[in-house]
Design goal:
The structure is a homodimer. By secondary structure, chain A is mainly alpha-helical. Chain A contains nine helices and no strands. Chain A has helices spanning 8-25, 32-39, 43-50, 53-61, 77-87, 90-109, 111-138, 152-167, 173-188. In chain A, helix 1 (8-25) packs across helix 4 and helix 4 (53-61) runs parallel beside helix 7. Chain A is elongated. Chains A and B meet through helix 6, helix 7, helix 8 and helix 9 of A and helix 6, helix 7, helix 8 and helix 9 of B.
Chain lengths: 190, 190
C-alpha cells in the first residue's frame, strides 16, 4: 500500500481537479464519485491513495499557488499594499474566492481540514503581512501599538467574503484597491 | 393544493427546524429527509407545501429575527455603533454567523436563494446602516463623500466571515467592539 503507483504529474493533475470541483460545488457536494469521473480514475484508486475525502482535499490544498506577498518591499506600507494589488490577478482572485467560499462551512465541521487550510494558505499570508507591517513600524510609518494592526488580516480576508455576500461579486483589483485606500490604510492612519 | 393544512404555529416550527439544520450542516448537506426526520413530518407533506428545498429554505429565512439597527439613535455615530454592539447577543451572533456560513456557497449557485437572503436579511441591515450614516452626515460628524462610507457593510459583514476563517471563532461582542473602534470608526475618521 504505497503512493508510488501514480506519477507526480498524475497526482498533481488529480489535486488540480479536486480544487476545481471544490470551487464549483463546494466541499459538501464534492463526492469521490465526482472526483473519479472528472479525473477518469477509479474510486478504488482514490481510496487506496488518500483513504478519505478530507485527506484528499487537504493534500490538494498544497497545490494552491503560494502567495507572493512575502516578496514585496517597496519602501512604504502604502506602496507595499498597492504592489500587492497590482500583482493580484482578477482571475486568480476569483479562484481564491471560490475556494474559500467552498471551504468555509466544511472547515467549521472538520478540524483536520481547518488545520490544513490554516497551515497551507492562511498562516503564510498572515506571516507575510506581519513582515510588511514590521518594516512599516521600523520605518516609523505606523506605531507598533496601532489598534488596527491586529485586524489587517480580518479586513483583507473579510472583503473577499463580504463582497460575495453583499454584491454577489468576487473582489476584483479595482474594488480591492479602493478598499485598501478607503478602509485598510485609513484605519491604520497611513 | 393549499398551504392551509398546517397551522401557523406548525409552519413556524418547521421553518425554525430548517434554520437550525442550515446552521448545523450548511445548505448542501441539508436534505428534505433530514427536515422530515427533525420535524416528524413526511417528505410528501414538505413537498406538497413547499415544492422544493430552495423554496423551503427561502421561506424559512423570513423567520430570522429582524435586525434592531434601524431603531438606534443615540445622537452620535460612535454611540450608535456602540449601541449596536451592546444590543448584540453573543448567542445570536453565533447563530447569524452559522447561517451565513451555511448559505455562502449555496447562494452563489442558486440565484433565487441569493435574492431571498439579500431581500430578507442583507438589504434591511444595509438600509438601517445608511440611516445611521445619513444622520451622522447631517450632524457634520462625517462628510457625505467620506470614501469609507461605501464600505461600512463590507467591514461589518466581512468581520463575521474573516474571524471564522482566521481564528475559527465566531465574532463575539468583545471582538466586535474592538473591531468597531479599531477599524470601522478609524476608517471613517470619527
Amino acid at each position: 500500500m504505497t503512493r508510488s503507483r501514480l506519477t507526480p504529474e498524475r497526482e498533481s493533475e488529480l489535486y488540480g481537479a479536486v480544487l476545481d470541483l471544490l470551487r464549483e460545488v463546494g466541499y459538501d457536494s464534492l463526492t469521490m464519485d465526482a472526483v473519479a469521473a472528472r479525473t477518469r480514475s477509479s474510486k478504488a484508486t482514490l481510496y487506496r491513495q488518500w483513504h478519505s475525502k478530507p485527506e484528499l482535499v487537504a493534500r490538494s490544498l498544497q497545490q494552491v499557488k503560494p502567495s507572493v506577498t512575502g516578496e514585496i518591499d517597496t519602501g512604504s506600507l502604502r506602496g507595499d499594499f498597492h504592489e500587492m494589488m497590482s500583482r493580484a490577478d482578477d482571475e486568480e482572485m476569483e479562484r481564491d474566492s471560490a475556494l474559500m467560499r467552498g471551504l468555509l462551512q466544511a472547515v467549521h465541521n472538520n478540524p483536520d481540514l481547518y488545520d490544513a487550510l490554516r497551515k497551507l494558505l492562511i498562516e503564510p499570508e498572515m506571516q507575510a503581512l506581519r513582515t510588511l507591517v514590521e518594516r512599516a513600524v521600523e520605518r516609523g510609518e505606523i506605531s507598533a501599538d496601532n489598534p488596527a494592526v491586529d485586524f489587517i488580516p480580518h479586513m483583507l480576508f473579510g472583503s473577499f467574503f463580504a463582497r460575495q455576500m453583499i454584491e454577489d461579486k468576487v473582489p476584483d483589483r479595482c474594488f480591492l484597491t479602493r478598499y485598501m485606500d478607503s478602509v485598510v490604510l485609513r484605519a491604520l492612519g497611513v
